[in-house]
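SAMPLE LOG
Freezer: B-3
Tube label: C17
Construct: single chain, 295 aa
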Amino acid sequence: HFIPIPLFESSSPLFGPISGSTVLHIYGSDFVQDKFYCRFGVKTVGATFLSSSHVTCVAPPQMIAVRLELEVSVNGVHFISSGLFYEYVNEIILSSVQPEFGPESGGTVLKIRGEDFGPRSQMMCEFGSTNLRVPATRLSNDTVSCVTPSHIPGPVTIKLSNNGQQYSTSFLTFLVHAQQFVTSLAPSTGVVGADTIGTVRGSNFMDSRGIACKFGTTVVLAQFINSSALTCRSPRVTTTGVVNLEISSNGVDYTLSGMKFSYVASVVVLGVSPASGPLSGGTTIKLHVDQDFPL
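STRUCTURE (predicted):
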């Protein structure tokens, strides 16, 4: 029997890996529920009828990256051009991620490097699970960025997709660490024009190359002591004031503990009384200074 020639409007996605298995959605009109076939170059596959305006077919594998015109048939013998194209691209290869670890709360902006990212499109990052997929931003031909979702502490694999279906077999490992907190700082006061070495105490600190303290907006390197203590040297400033003190293990994500560090003016000692006392100690002395001194 005779059937009308189907009309084709669009297809999605426009490309997929040379390994195949991409589900190609084809949209148009006058599709029939008889057998429907798609041909990619010289390879023919059956299609799935969904409606008179929507069919799907699964891209077969190809040996090389190539752009092919999609041909269709209702009998598997006579094929017509759809006017639509599908591009096979090489498999994505991932090489590095920075930073290599971040907090369980998520929000870490990652830079992921690799090759064969394919045509510029909406890429996706996957963090160990199909439930943890987030959009990626293309920064260059070999770099994308994505923001980590919240995740329980532990290692997690990162994969990329450039068509929203297949994710790379190549992967990177990102370490999710427990949330870090700052609970105390001693001393919490420093003198204008000088630096002060302070001890920061808290929880879940990590011995890493990127460990740092941030005084206001100024970042300084920190010295790791253990998982609950580190030291850092306050930057020198020229005016008095109060700044927030937060810490980071990866140089990107900082705590939000709201710890305060105060800069005060230097004090000049004008005199001391009494001027002497017994060797046994116990003498109460008074210092006379040039200004009020914070207690």
